[in-house]
Design a protein that fits this description.
Layout: H1 4-18, E1 23-28, E2 34-36, H2 39-46, E3 51-57, E4 60-65, E5 70-74, E6 80-84, E7 94-100, E8 105-109, E9 116-120, H3 124-127, H4 141-148, H5 155-160, H6 170-179, H7 193-212, E10 253-257, E11 260-264
Parallel strand pairs: 2-9
Antiparallel strand pairs: 1-7, 3-4, 4-5, 5-9, 6-8, 7-8, 10-11
The structure holds zinc ion.
Length: 270
């Protein structure tokens, strides 16, 4: 599933591809992909709009349009957006198409169909429950400590909770906890001030390295430009079960936490 670095890469690469282009027509093949408004209304409302602004919040892409409305996309498991020349035909997994005044078409493709698209007046109606952005200067170690206080859930589960912190998913949670040397099974409330500071630094560092690598290309994710991301080559623990820890040589362990595979070094992380 695309996480903050993958979605950020998407926004950065789509910006030069889409900026200033206008939607000539729209088609929705799988109605449930458009969560809001209803698909017929969506097709009418998006027609004639121009792409003006490109933002990310958590794992959501926010495309600001010339009339002040926003097109919001969440890729979930297998969603992808690609700009194609007119002659490229949509396949059976393409559920929404936008024809642009450049002659190109924007394809939303999603084999598993978990992704969602919204067209809204005010993005905050959809995004207000998200926790802080990890790179927001107002998000401090003290803020993180407060958000974890009194929480008996595992620190891994809490990092995945988008209401606590926006944008971190399975890969970057495991990699952050390794860098901070914290056992993912520990209760969130058990982290000391010092450990919370280390985790705060680690989350930012791992996410930044992910962005610099244009994301982690495992099964499904590839950035809009087509060339794969490279951060998977830097993973210390994620999907390295039974392989030696790069730091100490102990085999990496895998456990299930919050119904998600969790990878860690039982020697380095305590
Ligand atoms: Zn180790």
């Amino acid at each position: 599933m695309p996480e903050l670095p993958e979605v950020e890469t998407y926004v950065r690469e789509l910006r030069p591809q889409l900026a200033g282009k206008r939607v000539v027509s729209a088609q929705v093949g799988w109605p449930r992909i458009v969560a809001q408004p209803d698909p017929a209304q969506f097709v009418g409302m998006i027609r004639g709009r121009r792409f003006d602004d490109f933002l990310r919040r958590g794992k959501y892409m926010i495309f600001g349009l010339d009339n002040g409305q926003s097109l919001i996309v969440h890729l979930r498991m297998t969603g992808e957006l690609r700009l194609h020349p007119a002659h490229v035909e949509a396949d059976q997994h393409t559920h929404m198409l936008l024809e642009l005044d450049s002659g190109e078409w924007l394809h939303y493709r999603d084999p598993r169909k978990f992704g969602r698209i919204w067209l809204v007046e005010d993005p905050s109606t959809l995004l207000h429950k998200l926790g802080p952005e990890p790179f927001d200067p107002d998000f401090t170690p003290a803020d993180l400590h407060e958000r974890l206080a009194g929480r008996s859930a595992s620190i891994k589960a809490l990092l995945l909770n988008q209401a606590i912190l926006a944008g971190v998913g399975n890969i970057y949670a495991d990699e952050s906890l390794f860098l901070a040397k914290i056992d993912p099974r520990r209760a969130g409330s058990s982290l000391s001030d010092e450990e919370t500071r280390a985790l705060h630094v680690a989350v930012r560092s791992v996410l930044q390295a992910g962005i610099d690598g244009r994301g982690s290309s495992l099964q499904n994710y590839a950035p809009p430009s087509g060339a794969k991301g490279s951060y998977q080559d830097q993973h210390q623990v994620f999907r390295r079960t039974d392989q030696p820890c790069y730091r100490c040589g102990t085999p990496i362990q895998r456990v299930i936490l919050a119904q998600r595979s969790t990878h860690f070094c039982p020697t380095c992380q305590e």
